[in-house]
Amino acid sequence: MRAPSPIPSSGTPTPPMVRAARPATEPSRGRRVLIRAICCVSMIVVVMDLSIVNVALPDIRRELHATATGLQWTVDAYALVLAVFLVLSGSLADRFGRRRMFVIGLVIFGLGSLACGLAPTIGCLVAARAGQAVGGTMLNPVALAIVANTFTDQRERGRAIGVFGSMSGVALALGPVLGGVLVDAAGWRGVFMVNLPIVALAVVLVTVFVPESRAARARRFDPAGQLLVAVLLGGAVFAVIEGGSLGWTSPAILAAAAASVTSAIALVFVERRVRDPLLEPRLFRSVPFVSALVMAILALCGFQAFLFVITLYLQTVRGLPAWSAGLCLLPIGVLVLALSPISGRMVGARGPRHPLLIAGLALAVAGIALLWATPTTWMPALLAAFLLVGVFLGFANPPISNTAVSGMPRSMAGLAASLASAGRQAGTALGVAIAGVVVGPSLGILSTGIHHTGAEAAAFTDAARGVWWMLASLGITLAVLAVLSTGRWAQATARLAAAEFEHQTAKGDR
Question: Does domain 16-222+274-509 have CATH number 1.10.10.10?
Answer without folding.
Answer: no
